Amino acid sequence: MSFPDNSSLSKAELEEGNILAPRFDENGLIPVITTHAETKDVLMVAYMNAEALHMTIELGEAVYYSRSRDEIWHKGKTSGQVQVVKEMRTDCDQDAIVLSVIPGGDGGCCHVGYENCFYRIIPFGNKDKADNPILGEPDVTKVR
Question: Fewest CB within a 10 Å sphere: which of 29, 31, 44, 136?
């Protein structure tokens, strides 16, 4: 499946129309923010290319593009942490996607074993520590 060329759409059609015309970057990727459908927690940020986006729409499960492995990545295919898509949205100029999912398996999503990839806290509001901040302790459950 190929998506319409977004340069052929007017600004109004792109921003408020009903045609999905994703604006992939120069590498053919679009960022994806994945949230938990029930808790609303941000689980991860990943990327999709056109093939991964098409597969996600077709399967109803999250499929990403792994930049490090340079390949399609069906989330959970090997780990069991399949992400069942409950909702997909694109932003106003169609250059980002938000997935709302239910994670399968052990409920985790992060490759180091946490429920989400945002388990480390960055301290802020302390001028004395701003030049050398130390990450806070994880406040997210480790599932494996």
Answer: 136
